[in-house]
Amino acid sequence: MFFKNLFNSSKKNNAIHVLSASEFRKALSKKGLQLLDVRTPREYAIACIKGAKNLNIFEPNNFKKVAARLNKEAPVYLYCQSGKRSRQASKLLVKMGFNHIYDLKGGFSNWH
Prior knowledge:
- This protein is an alpha/beta fold.
- It is built from five helices and five strands.
- The protein has helices spanning 2-7, 21-27, 41-46, 60-67, 84-95; strands at residues 16-19, 34-37, 53-54, 76-79, 101-104.
- A five-stranded parallel sheet has the order 1-5-4-2-3.
- The longest helix has 12 residues, at 84-95.
C-alpha cells in the first residue's frame, strides 16, 4: 500500500486529461463544455479557437475570481500557446474543485 500511494498519482491529477489536437477538436463539438484560452489578451486578439473565453493565467487574482463563477461539474477545456500555462491553469482549477479538465497538448501552436 505504501508503494502504491508513493508512486500512484493523486486523485486530483486524475481530473486533468491532456488531449491531442484531433481529440480536442472532436471534443469541442459536445454541448455544455467551457472553453478557456489562458493566454494574454494580446495573444487572444491575434487568433483563438472559436468560442473560447479569454482568462489570462498571468493575472491570478482575476483568473481565480472568474473561474470561481464557472460550473465545476461541467468539463473545462483549456489551452495556451504551447502547453505550459494551461498546465499551470489546470492545476489551479483542480485546487478550486474542478474535476473534468481537458488540456490541449502543445497548445494553440499545435492546433493548426
